[in-house]
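Late entry, written up from scratch paper. The run itself happened at the end of the previous shift, but nothing got recorded in the book at the time, so transcribing now.
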Amino acid sequence: GMTVIVTDHHDLPPQLPPAHAILNPKLIDETSPYRGVAGVGVAYILAVCLAQGMNRAQDLTGPMLELFTLGTIADLAPLTGVNRRWVRRGLKLLPQSQLAGIQALVHVAGLNNGQEALKPEAIGFRLGPRINAVGRIADPQIVIELLTTDDPQRALELANQCEEVNQLRQRLCELIEQEAIAWVEQSSFDVLNDRVLLVVHPNWHHGVIGIVASRLVERYGVPVFIATYEDQEQHLVRGSARGIPEFNVFEALQCCDDLMEKYGGHRAAGGFSLKAEYLDEVRSRLRIFANMHLQPQYLKPLVSIDAQATLSQINLALFKQIDQLHPCGIENADPVFWTPNVRIVDQRLIGRDQSHLKLTLAEDGYPGTIKAIAWRWGEYYPLPGRVDIAYRLRLNEWKGEKNVELELVGVRSPESVPESVPESVPESGRETLELPLLVQEEGDRYPDSPVADPANLSAADSPNFLASEGRSAEPELEDKSDQADRLTGVTFYFNKRKYLCRIAVGQGERELHIYNPEGHLLAVQPQQAWGWLGQRREDAQQVDVSQSYYFNLIRAALNALEIEEKSDLLQKKDRLIVEKDQQISTLTQQLNLLQQQLGQLSVEQQQQFQALQANLQQHEATIQQQETQIGNLQAHGFT
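Output as recorded:
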């Protein structure tokens, strides 16, 4: 009898939970200004609507907007659409907050509590971490009470608790990061071959490993999946993932769907848990997925530049012009400038752990100098005397004086030239999709679990299937709608739906068959721009599979088939290696026994020995064949 409203902002699962209402921006059009709201934004919209219905909006809108601003920036939501509009208003309210808890946080964090609006970085690096740290490694009730109390003294006590917890969080992050880096450096991790990093270690605090994952992404330039064990017996693994722009974390986790206990997230980040026995298989699948989706040029922490500037152009007037663009943040970043051949006049380590760099910079032909800060660059000290620099502008205020400083985000040697990046294929162009030579094994791979019921598929109404020019023969279409339930093949996800695909032979040609749970089939032949979509042969309609939806669906199916094929080859290689080792062990034991008995052989026993030698030669020939097969597998890129 209870009314259930579910609010969330993560990617949607194939099966939505039962509820009277589900509020999630992923359910609305991608062009909507509400599309980018985080969980706090969904809650804010719901709360405002409820307050308006109760005629209480006037009293609550201000405090709720302050909480919305804190949560949106701390959760790294994009500062676009309504997020940008509402955050801009909320930043002006925070210095004179109506909430005692926020006033206390601003005081403890040492921020200006005057009339000027706060900047997003003040929340992202000062207020947000003090709130998030409690939720990660302490009792979240501390923050709940902090943000709801009306007692300033109690709020200050709770804010100080947040400060202590945040300092502990910082120390934990430093220790885990050092251990993770040590593990990676001692492992066989190869950036170009692996293209994804999976680190698992006992006794790490799962509340902070997501932060460490982000730092490892910055360091190695690849997607990072980091985890620790949930129990003393090390049977269950729980972890976090962080990606790079060209890598979809949620799709990578979906490729391991059958191995996961649970998982969730979105393109840039995710969380997961699994049994430890599946770690090797998960590592293998993530590596295959990364190799399929990441080109070598993506595996570098490159910096995107907006404009070139000289140091003489960097002044307070330029900063004020740029400041009019604020608030800046995720998907609406501060402009990044670059200046070539800058001279480093002075550099020194700063910070409690000497992890940051403070620099004084000069430029030929410019009489003055300018200060710069490089966060977490301590390990690169000292930098060479001359470098090209990429930077953002920051305002430094001290004893009433304001000066513009640089925040370095990248450097290179002056003679460096940016590597060219291959041009993307234009949308109008047609790309040939090759069908893999997948060997199907016995057994039904189609899922038994139900899938959210979509609209019926047809070429005219809802293009939910895909392929490329000319058509020689109509593919064989199954006559029964329940045929998909009995087919063998490989399951995969596309646009939050589950499909099954396989390679079939129709009229002498190989075809890609893609089924949905309702039994509709899309049949595509290589090098063709048209496919056939239908449930029965007489109902099949010709569809243009060069359309983006069909083309992307076919690509997803081919990726799934390739992953399955490579997984099967890896398993076959492992089986061959085990068989080889077993045979070598058996033969070694037989040989040792024969050597012991060699001096005591009769004529009859010598004949038996000769027979055993012949048998040994046969075994050696078998092993040689297996080694040839292993070599062929390695030639395809498996190690």
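The radius of gyration is 31 Å.
(Scratch paper discarded after transcription.)
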